[in-house]
């Protein structure tokens, strides 16, 4: 009898201990201390009532609103950091960074992780009440005017009311700076994305069901069969087709002039690509995705919480035939019919690594390490039970303190088209306020 109750007491003590340990792990996340993060006092004193729902605002979690939310876009970001024993300001270290860029166009190239990127940008646009050029007609394929190379204000919903304010565009469109500058607010930045052309081809071919188009569905190696004789395959589909979707598709969307896509003149290609490159503030490289997001954050002066993303892939295709190795001859043919894509990818990959080199002295790799860690940590949290305590992320050199909760996770995993609808709804509710002043101006 006595022995049994002793066991009972010991058991309860043991359970209590387990509970305590678990509780402490949940409540106080263990951050890597080698990254030396310090809490900065100014951020604790931010206003307590900003207007956003992106980072979670269920009534239970009001108190965990983030510091970054409470910054308005117009406020310069002065973060005091304590690092390596010395204290310096964020702006001293990142001299270009004064306020977040909130006017931008994303050239969404199919099958390049562009959907994941769109979610990141849409979340940001929603948070900053940006005004998107949007068409509900294009919801199905997330398309605005693609594949047209022109775009007008009238292609955007409610342009009569919103037309002077567009500062965000994320749906599939072909880059045309002249046309886009006309509809966007002055000073809009252009962001592109590219993927290594061979891997892009493998992915896009099956995603667009081109193995059906070329009647290669039952072929053991559709990609190889197509590349053995691309011209022959293309003729099978259409007698007169100069642009098949297998040729320089990325370059076309990124704005390479369509009438030059068939040129063999590598000097001309390079000149045009270089000129085009000047129109882009930054081009994300799919193969270096996390690094690219960190670079994007730096170029646009965003907070690290803005670039967090779900590691669940959107639109993932699983056709095992995608991975079949190709012969040298087949690869050569792919390079031949995609010469512009290859050169453009090399150009933007090279400029990407040049910018990495420039930033390396400013803690770029340290930031990438921390960002990877944070992405993993947040995704793990979001996968686990949704009703647990929020995950509090402390301030670091690259982010203000913020909190991840159920709402945040939902936003991270929301589909681009649902985000777009949500943002459009936010815009239309707000334009009721805008209508008045613009009517006043008109009636003067
Ligand atoms: C924020 O709170 C202050 C005082 O608490 C108030 O004066 C202000 O109107 C509030 N702003 C918004 C946007 O709710
Ligand atoms: C875009 O607008 C132009 C001019 O109004 C029109 O001709 C064109 O068909 C529109 N494109 C789309 C995709 O709606
Ligand atoms: C880009 O837009 C401008 C202005 O609308 C137009 O003149 C030009 O033809 C367009 N470029 C292409 C390649 O369609
Ligand atoms: C093929 O298309 C081009 C441009 O799209 C056109 O100029 C040419 O006449 C067409 N050829 C035939 C045989 O239809
Ligand atoms: C991108 O550029 C880097 C640096 O020049 C190079 O090492 C790498 O192989 C390139 N990546 C691809 C996929 O071509």
List keywords for this structure.
single chain; 8 strands; Gal-3-0_sulfotransfrase; transmembrane helix; signal-anchor; Rossmann fold; golgi apparatus; disordered C terminus; binds 2-acetamido-2-deoxy-beta-D-glucopyranose; 444 residues; alpha/beta; membrane; globular; 4-stranded parallel β-sheet; two-stranded antiparallel sheet; 47% helix
Total count of helical runs of at least 4 residues: 19
The first-to-last residue Cα distance is: 95 Å
CATH class bucket of the domain at 99-362 and 407-430:
Alpha Beta
Segments where pLDDT lies below 50 for 5+ residues? 25-30, 32-95, 433-444
What is the strand tally?
8
Topology summary:
Elements: H1 2-27, H2 41-44, E1 80-83, E2 86-89, H3 90-93, E3 104-106, H4 114-127, H5 159-162, E4 168-169, H6 177-183, E5 189-194, H7 197-207, H8 210-213, H9 222-228, H10 230-237, H11 249-253, H12 266-277, E6 282-285, H13 289-300, H14 304-307, H15 328-337, H16 339-360, H17 364-383, E7 391-393, E8 402-404, H18 406-413, H19 416-443
Parallel strand pairs: 3-4, 3-5, 5-6
Antiparallel strand pairs: 1-2, 7-8
Helix pairs in contact: 4-19, 12-16, 13-17
This protein binds 2-acetamido-2-deoxy-beta-D-glucopyranose (5 copies).
One 2-acetamido-2-deoxy-beta-D-glucopyranose is lined by residues 145, 148, 152, 154-155.
């Amino acid at each position: 009898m006595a022995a049994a109750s002793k066991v009972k007491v010991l058991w309860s003590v043991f359970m209590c201990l387990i509970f305590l340990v678990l509780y402490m792990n949940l409540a106080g996340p263990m951050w890597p201390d080698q990254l030396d993060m310090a809490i900065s006092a100014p951020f604790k004193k931010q206003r307590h009532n900003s207007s956003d729902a992106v980072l979670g605002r269920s009534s239970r979690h009001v108190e965990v609103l983030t510091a970054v939310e409470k910054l308005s876009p117009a406020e310069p970001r002065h973060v005091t950091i304590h690092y390596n024993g010395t204290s310096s300001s964020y702006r001293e270290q990142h001299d270009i960074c004064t306020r977040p860029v909130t006017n931008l166009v994303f050239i969404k190239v199919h099958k390049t992780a562009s959907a994941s990127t769109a979610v990141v940008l849409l979340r940001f646009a929603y948070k900053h009440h940006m005004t998107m050029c949007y068409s509900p007609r294009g919801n199905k394929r997330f398309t605005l005017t693609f594949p047209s190379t022109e775009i007008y204000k009238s292609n955007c919903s409610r342009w009569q009311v919103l037309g002077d304010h567009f500062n965000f565009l994320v749906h599939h469109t072909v880059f045309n700076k002249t046309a886009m500058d006309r509809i966007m607010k002055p000073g809009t930045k252009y962001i592109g994305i590219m993927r290594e052309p061979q891997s892009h081809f493998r992915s896009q071919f099956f995603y667009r069901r081109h193995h059906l188009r070329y009647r290669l569905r039952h072929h053991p190696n559709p990609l190889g069969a197509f590349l053995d004789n691309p011209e022959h395959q293309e003729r099978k589909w259409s007698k007169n087709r100069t642009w098949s979707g297998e040729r320089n598709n990325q370059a076309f969307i990124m704005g390479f002039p369509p009438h030059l896509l068939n040129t063999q003149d590598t000097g001309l290609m390079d000149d045009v690509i270089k000129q085009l490159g000047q129109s882009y503030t930054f081009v994300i490289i799919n193969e270096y995705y996390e690094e690219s997001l960190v670079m994007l954050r730096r170029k646009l002066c965003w907070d690290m919480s803005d670039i967090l993303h779900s590691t669940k892939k959107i639109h993932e295709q699983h056709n095992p035939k995608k991975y079949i190795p190709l012969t040298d001859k087949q690869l050569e043919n792919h390079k031949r019919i995609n010469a512009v894509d290859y050169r453009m990818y090399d150009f933007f990959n090279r400029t990407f690594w040049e910018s990495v080199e420039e930033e390396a002295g400013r803690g770029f790799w340290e930031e990438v390490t921390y960002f990877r860690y944070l992405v993993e940590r947040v995704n793990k949290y979001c996968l686990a039970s949704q009703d647990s305590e929020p995950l509090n992320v402390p301030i670091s050199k690259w982010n203000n303190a913020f909190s991840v909760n159920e709402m945040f996770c939902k936003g991270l995993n929301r589909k681009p088209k649902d985000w777009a609808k949500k943002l459009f709804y936010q815009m239309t509710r707000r334009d009721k306020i805008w209508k008045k002043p613009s009517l006043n101006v008109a009636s003067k």
